Amino acid sequence: MSIKRNRMLAWAAMYGVLIVLAALWIYPLVIAIVKSFAVGGFANYSAVLNHERFNYWAAIGNSFLIAGLSTVGIVVLSTLGGFAFSQMRFRGRVFLYRALLAGLAIPVASVITPLFFSINTVGLRDTHVGVILPIVAFNVLTMLLLMKNHFDGIPPELLEAATIDGARPLRVLVSIFLPISGPVLANISVLSFVYSWNEYLLPNLLLSDDSKFPVTVAVGLLQYQKMSQEQIGQLYAGLILLTIPSVLVYLFSQRYLQAGLTAGAVK
Amino acid sequence: MRSFGGRWVPYLYVAPVVILSGALLYFSIGFAAFASLTEWNGLRRMEFVAFDNYVQLFQDRTFYIALMNTIKFMVATVALNCVLGLLVAVIAKEKLPGSNFFKAVFFLPIAMAPAIIATVFKYMFEANYGSVNETLRAMGLLGQGDVIQWLGADLGVWTIVIINTFSWMGFSMMVYFAGLMSIPDEINEAASIDGAGWWRRLFSITIPSLSGTTAVLVTLGIVGALKTFDLVWLTTQGGPGVSTQFLATFLYTERQGREAGYSSAIGIVLLVIAFALSLVQIRLSNRKK
Asked: Taking the model in full, what pTM does it have?
């Protein structure tokens, strides 16, 4: 009897906690949706889509371009590097690997002046390539760690068998290691894409042309010194529209995103 | 036996990441260290001033405000994310009907750009017409004409903590959940046969078993706090005045003010703090092993 009642109480308490927290988490989403219809209704959405400075499709396209190319760069670099650091023995291996991993602690903000200077000097300021390079440079390190750890876990017999057959390194990587790395590659691809998509500081620092802004920076184009209720409604409509791609990516890749993030944390 | 890949081939494989990442990062650090010793507006000739920028920095009231805010934020976000993440993970493990829905709700913000989240919260927490104060007034918790300055000098940092928790609690929840799954059921069963209640098991088995997970989350939280920029920049921009400046935003503000030398000095201090904290963490985790 009392065990059953205790169980009921425990359930009630646990649901209570979950419901209160979930309400706090859902509240901003509900507010954003409700407010996006404030004053103008659906007209808010058409106003945002026909804005004079803010170009929704351009922002989405820019984000896809930056995040897509960054992801390709990060995945290729971390795969090649992770493969060599894990499977090959060479002078300076440990030193180089440690020096790279130490970079994980560097806050991007601490080096913005030199970054801006370098990108400007090589003539890449206000270009997408100029944003992609530092995004890859900073984000590849986590993925390098993940790839190396993954390759470390592959049984050494596999490499021995291949080298006895005389296979060259690239051949070993492409036809033996990569085919069994599908899930890890999916994890780091999704993770790289989300990180690059969410990047704000670097594009904000390096881009000045409105039409090149990714989603995160383009939000600023919908804000003014003094905002009327109508403009706030339009801003919320813009925010909702800008979040749709992220939510879609989330829905299609939730499993990989969770796996990638927890793998990164648990090492 | 000749080592795999021979003598030179390995360098071809690591070259791309070493050149792009290593060179860009370490060149930047070196450049920042040099620039921090100069008076420079970011464009024209640098003038060597030795340690003047550092002397000035350590006498700058804003630096200490930014440092304190960063520390407050660090401690509060780490604590909140860990406590709430563990709480939800422990509940989710009980496999209540609908727990997957709750997990999805808490995890969703991770897919959303912090820049977007920050903007939503900025207008939600606005004092006069913001939704939070309106909701509180509607619930009778706040007088009709009254306002709470959520993003003001007193509460600003704590509001930014709330925004960060909204963004990242789902992450610590997932990490704890993965950790919980690796605790063998037999331990809990044995303990409950011995008469240990739910709370007893939580504090004597679950939390100690997850200490490794907690250590990782604390490290990531500390590094993350030092990197935090967009949540502050897009809500308060360090204001009102300098009351909610963080180290990263303080640096950015100085750089915008054409004080590239001074802002590089802030960057170097930020870097030293980041590396020092990482070293401490590595020491601690090595000692445990």
From this structure: 0.92
